[in-house]
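so my prof wants the structure for this chain in the tokens format not the other one, which i didnt know existed until like an hour ago. anyway here's the sequence
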Amino acid sequence: MVWFVENSDGVNRYLLWLDTGHLLPIRAEGYDAKGALVEGVHMDELNPGVLLSNSLFSP
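here's what i got, hopefully its the right format
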């Protein structure tokens, strides 16, 4: 788990869980200055070896 401070959109603190094999985020939680959970994301079925087309990154 990684902890860092950010001041953006009411979120004062983030907790970030990383996959031990790939160091990709698998869970993230954002808390306000009072410690209340503001947002949370859980990522499952991670497929880090998938090839993406370069056109996905062009405007």
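also thought this was worth mentioning. The first strand starts at residue 2 and ends at 8.
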